[in-house]
Design brief:
The complex is a heterodimer of chains A (about 425) and B (about 50). Chain A is of the alpha/beta class. Chain A is built from 13 helices and 8 strands. The chains are: A alpha/beta (about 425), B mainly alpha (about 50). At the A-B interface, α1 and α11 of A face α1 of B.
Chain lengths: ~425, ~50
């Protein structure tokens, strides 16, 4: 009886998560049916606000020169841009590479400061330092490996100017710069496209909810000053500030045309630690904001907290349980070859018709997973190829299963940090590659 | 309990089936619209 209940409730939980994701998918499809035929043109903006572009870089000698040039080549009036390049506690030639790029003749008269920083606080610390000296009306952040497309800033500003009193920040998207490197980067590329073209777009289109990513976004300088800057010590400082913006009744708007090219981990170890940090950060965000489900917070904050709670606690637990059930039953089936009297533990009353139906249901879930990836790929020219279909199918059984291990370790780590009062905000830097 | 669960399984399977067909149709539409738009602008126009 208990076995049946466990199996049923696990399956119902997974169904619920899929049905919830179909809602987001619906929002994304509506958006893309309309916008994929829209011809966008670069027309002059009604005004060009001053922008401070901040680039926090910690030992980024391999990629920083290209990023610096990309930023200085942005299609935006040079007189309206102030660039603050931070070489944060660097032991390599990051600052020298920055100087080499900035000293090029074409950038001679640009307003650029290179700051060699020795302070603490990681990325949030850099952003807070920049906040003190920023002259721009908006602060724009690019990670050291994020090479912006020429019109990236233009689209961010264009979006914010649609409703500057309501849109306190706007964010674009990140494309994978090294997508074709290996199987891992190909899978990451698919995941990035799905999260940005389906998840971000769907949630924005349906609920006007946005979440600031780590890079390629702008935020109102005065607003950040008014809330006391970025929270230091948080693993995902961007999520914290996103919650704060929504809590204050403002919006984080999606500028879907704004694109930056970001480098993704090429080795499993780098990928694992990057995602572990993200997962831990998200668990911390859920724990810190759980109270909003029961207080008088903004409904967007409640919805976002509910969503994150479901994904990171309920659905993850359901997926882990379903995997345990699968492997226990598989073990029983194998053991029955040697001793036919061994029962199958989670047999669901041995109802053959139900088993067949659930098999069809499972196959449909896999097809939905593959189709969702291909839907996201179809929104980006050149991505929807037949190879990607097979890759999506392969990633279901390999790449996507990795997240189970990551989430289990993240939960254990967050609980351990609480019990043993450890500093859980230690930042493991993602390794970069020359390209 | 099994009966209720069985009915629920049929309902969810039907929803998934409908969602799948709707999605395949959408992939087709969006793919062709995107291709048409980008080719209209030129592949290197960077404003899609």
């Amino acid at each position: 009886m208990l076995n049946n209940f466990l199996a049923f409730s696990t399956l119902v939980s997974i169904w619920f998560s899929l049905l919830a994701s179909l809602v987001t998918l619906y929002g994304a499809i509506r958006f893309w049916i309309k916008h994929s035929k829209k011809i966008v043109s670069i027309t002059p903006l009604k005004r060009y606000p001053t922008i401070t572009i901040v680039v926090p870089a910690h030992n980024e000698e391999l990629v920083i020169a290209k990023t610096t040039k990309g930023i200085l080549d942005l299609n935006y009036p040079a007189s309206k841009i102030e660039v603050l390049l931070y070489a944060d506690n660097c032991q390599d030639k990051t600052a020298a590479e920055m100087r080499k790029a900035v000293d090029m003749p074409e950038y001679r008269y640009r307003n650029v400061q290179i700051i060699e920083r020795q302070g603490s606080g990681g990325k949030a610390g850099v952003l807070n330092d920049a906040l003190e000296i920023a002259q721009g009306e908006y602060i724009c952040v690019y990670d050291a490996d994020a090479l912006p497309e020429q019109n990236a800033l233009y689209f961010l500003i264009k979006k914010v100017l649609e409703n500057p009193s309501r849109y306190m920040a706007t964010f674009g998207r990140n494309k994978t710069r090294n997508a074709k490197q290996n199987f891992l980067t190909r899978c990451i590329n698919q995941e990035v496209i799905v999260s940005q073209r389906i998840q971000h777009v769907g949630v924005w289109n349906l609920f006007k909810i946005g979440r600031i990513p780590g890079t390629n976004f702008i935020i109102n300088t005065e607003y950040v000053r008014s809330i006391g800057g970025w929270q230091q010590g948080a693993l995902t400082e961007d999520t914290e500030i996103s919650f704060r913006i929504m809590e204050d009744g403002y919006l984080i708007a999606l500028a879907y045309n704004s694109e930056a090219f970001e480098q993704e981990p090429e080795h499993l170890r780098d990928y694992y630690y990057q995602r572990l940090r993200w997962a831990k950060g998200n668990y911390q965000v859920v724990i810190n904001n759980f109270k909003h489900l029961f207080d008088r917070s903004n409904w967007r904050v409640k919805l976002e907290t509910f969503y994150l709670t479901c994904v990171f606690f309920w659905f993850n637990l359901a997926v882990v349980l379903s995997d345990i059930i699968f492997f226990v039953d598989l073990g029983c089936v194998v053991a029955r070859f040697f001793n036919p009297k061994i029962p199958i533990i989670f047999a669901m009353d041995s109802n053959l018709l139900l088993m067949q139906l659930l098999l069809i249901n499972w196959l449909l879930m896999i097809l939905l997973y593959v189709t969702q990836i291909n839907l996201a790929l179809a929104t980006q020219y050149g991505q929807a190829t037949s190879d990607q279909i097979w890759l999506a199918l392969g990633s279901y059984f390999t790449y996507s299963q990795l997240f189970i291990a990551i989430s289990i370790q993240a939960v254990c780590s967050v609980i351990g940090d609480k019990i043993f009062k450890r500093d859980g905000s230690k930042w493991v830097k993602t390794k970069r590659f020359a390209d | 309990m099994i009966d209720v669960f069985f009915m629920l399984a049929i309902l969810v399977t039907l929803i998934f089936l409908i969602a799948l067909f709707a999605m395949i149709h959408s992939v087709w539409t969006i793919y062709h619209q995107t291709e048409h738009t980008v080719l209209h602008l030129g592949k290197h126009h960077h404003v899609k």
